[in-house]
Structures are given as C-alpha cells and as structure tokens.
Amino acid sequence: MPKEIMSYIDYPMVKIPGGEIELRDDRIKSKWKAEIRPFLLTRYPVTTDFYYTITNKSPNSFDRDQKPVVNISWNDAISFCNLLSQKAGLGVCYSKNGENIVCDWESNGFRLPSEAEWHYACKAGTAGYRYGELNEIALYNENSGSMIHEVGTKEPNPWGLHDMLGNV
To answer: Is pLDDT above 60 for 71?
Structure first.
C-alpha cells in the first residue's frame, strides 16, 4: 500500500506473508488446506473513534474511543471498507449484483479478511490454537470484568497483531 494512503488512514497495517493453512470443519469431520496470498491487515481491530472518523456514525452509543467497534452488521462492515477505500482514493472491493454482494479480490481497496486469511493471521506461524498464554494475549470472561477494553492492551501475536482472540 502506498505510503501516502497509509498516512491518510493513520491506522497501522501489518504485511502478512503468504503461506498455507489447514482449516477444518468438525461438524462434518473434514480438513482442507488453503493457500494464502500476502495481504495487509490492521494491527488493531477498528476502533469506534476510527469508525466515526470514516463514517461520521458512532456504532457504540455516542462513544468515540479506542475500544473496538461492536454491534454492527456485516453490511455495515463492508460499507465501512468501501467508504474507507473511497476516502483513500482506492477502488472499492464490494459491489452489489442483484441481491448478491460481490467482492473484487483484485481491487486495491480495503476489505474484510477471508475466514482462511483471518485464521492464518491469528496463528501467525504458530502451531497451536493460541499463540501464547491466554491471560497475556486475550481479554475474556475470566479477566475482562465483563467489559470491552481498549484495543492493544494485551500482547500481540508474533506478527504484531493485537486482539486476535477475545475482547469482543
């Protein structure tokens, strides 16, 4: 991504290397491998402040803070990606084809990671289900006080991504 776009959005991105990940569906007892092309992913989940800056809408009541956006639909999320792309002068990734939403995987704009990309980025080259001690890497029912916390307060995974497990 060009440096001027990175500075426009002022939201840190991490280059995720290409590779392969094994996925599984325990319901049907199936496993398969997915090839992952290199991509960019935000270092932190999108915050309510950043969401408001791009959309002029506050998804969490009237808060504009560094907590992750919650309670938005998938359609809201892809609309955010398209609006962010437009504001950065990039092509949009999502369009409508009748009733269907289509993703242009070759677009230079912002999009949500695929399920395989998310799993791959979450594991960050590690072999287990978690990339560290749960209390150190995630906020969950035992250590969160039943509250959502600011992004990035727990240790990142080996690729520098925060909050890949827990918080929301």
So the answer is: yes
